[in-house]
Design a protein that fits this description.
Elements (H helix, E strand, L loop, with lengths): L1 H23 L1 H10 L6 H11 L7 H20 L9 H10 L5 E2 L5 E2 L2 H5 L16 E7 L20 H7 L5 H6 L4 E2 L10 E11 L2 H11 L3 E6 L2 E2 L1 E4 L4 E4 L1 E2 L1 E4 L1 H4 L5 E4 L2 E9 L9 E10 L18 H4 L33 E13 L18 H36 L6 H7 L17 H26 L10 H12 L1 H14 L5 H30 L7 H28 L27 H12 L2 H12 L7 H28 L6 H9 L1 H15 L6 H39 L5
Parallel strand pairs: 13-15
Antiparallel strand pairs: 1-2, 3-4, 3-6, 5-15, 6-7, 6-10, 8-9, 11-12, 13-14
Length: about 750
Amino acid sequence: MARSTCSARLLIRTALLLSICFLLNPADAGRRGFRKNKHDGGEERRAQEDDEKGGRRVGRKERKRLEREKAVKFAQMKADGQDQISMTKEAAELRSYELRKKKKKGLFRRKEASLAQVLFPGASPEEYSEREPVPAFVEQVESKRTHLPFDFYDLPSCPEPAEKIQKRFRQRKNLGSRLMGYKLRMSPYNFPTKVDKGCTPLCVVEIGGKKLRWLRKLVDRQYRVHLTLDQLPLLMRSRELNYAVRGYPVGFKAPPTFTGLQEDEFYLYNHIKFTITYREEPNEFEGVRIIGFDAHPVSIDYRKEGEIKSLTQDTNLEAAGKADGFSGCQADSSPINDPESYLKLRSGSSGEPLNIGFSYEVHWQETDITWSDRWDVYLVGSPDDEIHYFAIVNSLMIVVFLTGAVATIMIRTLKKDIAGYNEMQTIEEAQEETGWKLVHGDVFRPPQSYPMLLCVLVGSGAQIGSAFFATLFASMLRMLNPIKKGQALTAVVVLYVFCGVIGGYVSARLYKFCDAKAWKRNTIATALAFPAVIVSMFMVLNIFLRIVGAATAVSFLTVFFIFLLWGCVATPLVFVGSYFGYRADKIEVPTKTNQIARFIPEVPYYAAPPISNMIAGMLPFGSVCIELFFIMSALWLHQLYYIMGFLLAVVAILGATCAQVSCVMCYLQLCVEDHRWWWKSFFNCASAGVYLFLYSIWFLASKLELVGILPVMVYLTYMSMISLAFSLFCGTVGYLSCFWFTRRIYGAVKVD
């Protein structure tokens, strides 16, 4: 019996050790699963490391020595002028070294991985056979200075491919992509695998009048064209300047010092040189894998090279085989940027329209860079992950400080009261600790002003918080694919709808505690209040977007589907949650409420709203302000944000900060015999949303260069929506924490 007991203990200990090892090193488990996939580049790295060390396990000292040698090696490469953005082997090694801290997975023991594993876990490459067409998609023509994107085919451009070709490569759009205006449409360019093309005439477009003035405005506001090939965004690289930027500009503006004119001159890029980098390894896989997709735009006026008016307007010349007569663009030629032949965006002397000839060329280049490293160049120059660690440490310090304050309050009020409430106390102790006890008969008196509104706000905040946490968990579990545009927004909308059960339940339980009777009205208000505000703001903004023809203008069908989802799914779920909330027992409190409310003495100015609200809102906002900068940069400066684990940690710290700030402020309020804590506990933390909106105004003034009234209106509208949701979430956490805190402290003391 003793031997079997010992064996059982040994098995339990072994299982616990294995579990701990798995939890401490989740990257190994993911790597073991991914190792079976030959598409990952991790095997190649590990094989190289084993070859270098003869298959031996590298020790800590040796690893440190290798790291120092690498640091010296790459520092010398940078000193010698080696760039980080080209597709050479040396540049790829330097990129990989600079991004080494980003290429790690795991929570505690972070193991090396590729960016393909970190950004798009489980994604596998596509292989293309020779001469197989590779579909390229145009996304949006957008600018950081306006945030009013337009559709590519709204510009003067060549026609779309034939419907038969589009059906073959058509991609399904989700709800989020429709709301964001992402319309993946096939580009007019043709990319057969490993087929180089010289200058290829594409089409001739005639523009003038209003269309020409609009095109000049797009050039002036620095609009860029974005394409994707094999899910890779198009890049413009400059090896000399060591930079890479997504998309290519519509055109450029030359100042009078360059042209010698009295005003700025605008030029259009009408010839694109595409460079597609690929890898071919017959021993590992069949076919070709796309590694890079670059473009170099050229402005050339073909009218100076020959006659193009005789060609058919708005026709794909390559598809129709009508390239004759486009004398300035031959298969053996390659146009260059020459100031003498720039294409001016200006109509003729007598007002005749401008004929623009569009063309392109394609060059395929082989490289040794692996498919798993093709995303490295897109993150060159982005902030290091250590900054996010510092942001979390900053937030944790605030939480530790507040935890100490709350612990002091709990020990000072509860421990002494429980141990010595019935004992004789000195006059000094009684004067010190009886303030909050005097309001025990009024502290649980339901709010006298707008109890339904308070319950609706708390229920809406609970629904928002539940949906956001569920979305973050889904992202961490790799259920959301960052490659698919709009999938995260779709998840937020759908999960918010399904979390209506939580919102209805929380609102109903609180409304029942307030002894209110209009439960139907409360349920309808919970289902409609926050969505109605958001939809109203969105619809008003959508009208202006529709007027200017922006790509983000939502169609009537999408709006109808949103209303259908709101009315037929969200609202019934809120009623379901409300039904269970009203059926549950009324929330019990430890003290009885007096019939007559206690007189509230005058409170100090710093303890009364709105000053107390502004003071309390600083700490919740301060706990997220560093991470907020990266989120805002991803939203409005088109940067990549992929670290959902950091975001989940920051949101958890935000919730803890709101809870503790609310408890401290509630205790201070009760100590001055002010028992009206219901609304104050909500606004104390909800005021963090005001700071968020003020921060967005600072971000607008210092980081963005928006031009025009409508772009500023778009920015402020969306940031108002985000700030409102942020306020409701923080206010809900503060209110529920105060409710728990008061029940806890008044339930721990004896009240006569």
